[in-house]
Amino acid sequence: MNENAPIVGTTAIIGLGLIGGSMALALKDKQLTAHIIGTDLSREHEQKALELGLVDEILPLKEAVQKADLVVLAVPVNACVQLLPIVLDEVDKQVVIDTGSTKTNLVNAVVHHSKRSRYLPTHPMWGTEFSGPEAAVHGAFANKAVVFCNREESDRDVLDKVDELYQTIGMHIIHMQSEAHDEHVAYISHISHITSFALANTVLEKEKKEEAIFALASAGFESTVRLAKSPSTMWVPILLQNRENVLDVLNEHITQLEKFRDSLESKDQKRLGELMQNANKIGRVLNK
Amino acid sequence: MNENAPIVGTTAIIGLGLIGGSMALALKDKQLTAHIIGTDLSREHEQKALELGLVDEILPLKEAVQKADLVVLAVPVNACVQLLPIVLDEVDKQVVIDTGSTKTNLVNAVVHHSKRSRYLPTHPMWGTEFSGPEAAVHGAFANKAVVFCNREESDRDVLDKVDELYQTIGMHIIHMQSEAHDEHVAYISHISHITSFALANTVLEKEKKEEAIFALASAGFESTVRLAKSPSTMWVPILLQNRENVLDVLNEHITQLEKFRDSLESKDQKRLGELMQNANKIGRVLNK
Predict the structure, then answer these.
(1) Which of A188, A209, A281 to mutate to test the interface with B (most CBs of B within 10 A)?
(2) Span A8-177 CATH architecture
């Protein structure tokens, strides 16, 4: 075998949006696959993905899986729970991964499937507020983290192959159980989206009366509301699938905001300073 | 007079931190001033600002004001309320501006001062989460907005000079009354900082038990908590001076978060989607 041959013959990418499209680009850029088949519920997305050269061919779901060596599920997490068992039904020796933001529901949906061990749940920790095949970018995943869940439930060759793929596109791999993953992402990702959505709604509530404030929007504001542009088709399913963890974090976050409110109401300068100085610690933690 | 001569002979910058330092760089880079005198409560900041070439000379406050043609107050808003009357006491024909994030208190503090008309309240809408003279950067203010408050209370030559200065460093000027300014920045800037501080505290509350989550911190999280690194010495005074507006916005923001919580608790998929789709409108508004 040619040493420079791609490690995957044919890849099937199911869902040709931001993540599926960017994954296609990463696999091509690193010459990790010889051929990419795409499939999407939207004919428009399929056509666009072909035009943009994200995929080489469009085929129906089952045919795409049958012809593939690697299957990448990159659809909203509610669709993924439906599709994963259907995909595994078609699988023989294929390697199957998904890229979703919640994992426990997904793992539970295929726990008794005879082909469960051909599947590895993965969550590349990258995204933007944009969607669709046009949102796909080169080099999206480089230097970011990817979480592998429940590695002991996947075949050794599946683990090795997926490990090599993600390492080659420049990601560092973290192993977790699906329950721990879902709890952690509630803190690190899902709550950021809720606060951003809620902040946008707060300002838009005001904007009904005043236009001028938008002339003032500065970088600080833009960075905190950026995520509010994220699509509801992706985020409603994520929040519902991770509902209990997200509610825990959201309640804690409201409590933290109420501490700021109480300190301001009572003009408690000292307490307000302490709340901010505690928050400052996030800088040290993030730079670790 | 030489056509290429700086429009300001000597500038005194009071407060040599992020904003004062970046303003010094902007004035020098655009050759708007021939000489910059710096003054700061911290001897360390003064020394550092000299070393970094932000200022040409260090002098005590009153002497700096007396020797200057332009005085820039770039200190925390509580210090500014104290310093502005003292500065105006020393003023003859000087032009005085401040760069603070709240304006009504400041304007009220000098409303009866005989030199009030030599002062123009300005708020360049730029900042980062960093502080001190080392945080100063070139080109900080280019393509950002600057708010001028209560222009009718300043002398014509003051307005013309400050207009030319800010236009030359690339800012677009917005005129507002100080009360309207303070209300708008509560929505566009102050609430973003509170949510960011509170989000950091939410995650840090959890982090006492778990370290692993920080390995997962992604770009979305970083952008929403970035402002949480901001210094309390700057932000406690801002929030206290703008307390009533900030409390209005904070209460609205908590209400908006509670809508997300209620929808999640009742698994109301439709309502959750509507909340997000409403938030998505912020994208169109920001891109106007």
Answers:
(1) A188
(2) 3-Layer(aba) Sandwich (3.40)
